[in-house]
Amino acid sequence: MRTDPSILHVDLDAFFAAVEQRDKPSLRGKPVVVGGIGLRGVVSTASYEARKYGVRSAMSTAEARSRCPHAAYLGARFEVYRATSQAVMAQMRALSPLVEPLSLDEAFVDLAAAGLSNLTVDDVQAIAGDLKEAIREASGGLTASVGAGTSKLIAKIASDLDKPNGVVVVPPGTEAEFLAPMQVTVIPGVGPATAQRLSMAGVRTVGDLQQLDEEELIRQVGSAHGSSLYRLATASDDRAVVSDRETKSISIEDTFETDLVDRALLAAIGDRMAHRVAERLRKAQLSGRTVTVKTRMHDFTTHTRSSTLAGPTDDPRVIARVARRLLEDSDISGGIRLLGVGMSSLADWIQDDLFTESEHDEAPIELVDLPERPRDRQVGYYPGQDVVHSQYGAGWVWGSGRGRVTVRFETAETPAGPVRTFAVEDPELTKPAAVSPGEDKDTENDQDGANE
DNA sequence: TCTGGGGTCCTAGGACCC
DNA sequence: TCTGGGGTCCTAGGACCC
């Protein structure tokens, strides 16, 4: 544990709304609500003027409109917020090389990494004041609130205590008593569900939490959550500030104005989402192995279907094809209000032309185009029955299973001979093949035409 | 006037392998 | 014919955050 309050948490005040007020002077001093402005929109950020009327983040825009009809309702302009955020983060990086952004409007700054040591509360007060001034100038007038302490938890909670435009430095050694009177929900990670469970055990404040022993806490909320909660509550939080955390998933989703039931329309929307996901993967120089399709039903129940490929891809056609199959497997009767497509199990993307010729030959993953699988077929591709297309020409499926299909080529020579195994993206191939090679050839004549 | 979009992390069960 | 653990990978769902 540190002995000086060298971790800052910087939080921009009502960020999206403040940017809109900065750019449109007529909105200054007036209630502004930024978020989804459609029928099913929710509030991202309300200006402080709008908060007086009870408008809050995550509230439906419909409710916000009834509470504050005279506010300005604006859709989000993420490109503008991103640019402003970068200017603000640059000010923090000028102060310390170790900055951990949590979102567009929040970051931790580690002053110890800037070579500053033995900082007093007054030192940190002064540093925070200077940083706020630098942020104000760099952002065109935005204010920030800053919290500081010996840990991330303390800094984060402190930044919330004097909003907007405040600075709170928690003196070293006072952390446990600082936390004790607060509700358990001040701890990030304790939401309604956890608060409810803790409350049934008689725990409402962090002080109550401090009285519990770790075993008891783990019984209440599970092992990972319990032990981390125990450490946080007792102010023994030694989590490091980490500057670049790697992306774990990329996804696109959309809530429709009215529930959709038309499979063809949903398939077309899914295709477009798959292409947008692929585009973002390429921009980030990433590729992924797991495709996930998310659906939200009319009654708000949410389902995901996912399929993991044998190798990573950023190919929009591959992602779209897998997404389409996953969507076909999803129940959409009664209509769905949301569709999403995402990619995870991400790996660093390697640009194709960086491969040398020999590396190409040894590339572990080769994909083949598989025929459309008939709706009623329960398992993957049928050996001796299905024809696939590859860079070596067309061939018969010889065997399949576990993300792989073995293909026998009649007309093309492949580097490995007439039989070659490919990785495929078909989720059904994770199940064993229905028939073994050589059997079930009675439809061979029907398939002949497909070979041309 | 119901409930966004982008994420992260955790859990639990089943398949599979040794 | 019955019966092991342990580890890893995958899938689905849920809690939570901004």
Structure in words:
Monomer. It is an enzyme of class 2 (transferase). Mean pLDDT is 85; it is low at 351-365, 374-379 and 427-452. The radius of gyration is 28 Å and the shape is globular. Helices cover 33% and strands 24% of the residues. By secondary structure, the chain is of the alpha+beta class. Strand 14 and strand 15 form a beta hairpin. Strands 5-6-1-7-8 form a 5-stranded mixed β-sheet. Helix 10 crosses helix 11 and helix 12 packs antiparallel against helix 13. It is built from 15 helices and 16 strands. It folds into 4 domains: 1-171, Alpha-Beta Plaits (2-Layer Sandwich), CATH 3.30.70; 177-233, 5' to 3' exonuclease, C-terminal subdomain (DNA polymerase, domain 1, Orthogonal Bundle), CATH 1.10.150; 249-358, Dna Ligase, domain 1; 366-451, no CATH class. The protein binds a DNA duplex (18 and 18 nucleotides) through strand 3, helix 3, helix 8, helix 11 and strand 9.
Secondary structure: elements and pairs:
Blueprint: E1 7-12, H1 15-23, E2 32-35, E3 43-46, H2 48-51, H3 61-67, E4 72-74, H4 78-95, E5 99-103, E6 106-110, H5 121-139, E7 144-149, H6 152-159, E8 167-169, H7 175-179, H8 192-200, H9 206-211, H10 214-221, H11 223-233, E9 249-260, H12 263-283, E10 286-297, E11 302-313, H13 316-328, E12 336-348, H14 357-362, E13 387-390, E14 393-401, E15 404-409, E16 419-423, H15 444-448
Parallel strand pairs: 2-4, 7-8
Antiparallel strand pairs: 1-6, 1-7, 2-3, 5-6, 9-12, 10-11, 10-12, 13-14, 14-15, 15-16
Helix pairs in contact: 4-5, 10-11, 12-13
This protein binds a DNA duplex (18 and 18 nucleotides) through strand 3, helix 3, helix 8, helix 11 and strand 9.
Site (Substrate discrimination): 16
Biased composition (Acidic residues): 441-452
Cofactor: Mg(2+)
